[in-house]
Design brief:
Radius of gyration: 13 Å
Shape: globular
Largest sheet: 7 strands, mixed
Strand content: over 45%
Helix content: under 10%
Distance between the termini: 37 Å
Oligomer: single chain
Number of strands: 11
Length: 110
């Protein structure tokens, strides 16, 4: 299964972006789907997860600003109130099945 992530770009601090991850509806409905990010020189960081039952969870660094959602074969990451520290390459994935998207760059200018 190939995951296609898109929606990244350049935005000013305080702005919003919505990332999309296109995959398989059957895979997404039966597994947790995650968004991670990796900034230069930093470890990959989990920023959102949605379980097969639809439960969501976020680290404190993005809680209240990021929202993950699922619509059949697409998983979204709505990012609001973006900060320069959110600059990174964002990846969607199905960790249990070791499926990963190619990543999409998000750059937040101050």
């Amino acid at each position: 299964v190939q995951l296609q992530a898109c929606g990244g770009g350049l935005v000013q601090a305080g702005g919003s972006l919505r990332l999309s991850c296109a995959g398989s509806g059957s895979i997404f409905s039966m597994n947790s789907v995650t968004w991670h990010r990796q900034a230069p020189g930093k470890q990959r960081e989990l920023v959102a997860v949605i379980t097969s039952a639809g439960y969501t969870n976020y680290p404190d660094s993005v809680k209240g600003r990021f929202t993950i959602s699922r619509d059949n074969a697409t998983v979204y990451l709505q990012m609001n109130s973006l900060k320069p520290d959110d600059t990174a390459v964002y990846y969607c994935g199905v960790p249990r099945r070791r499926y990963w998207g190619q990543g999409t760059q998000v750059t937040v200018s101050s």
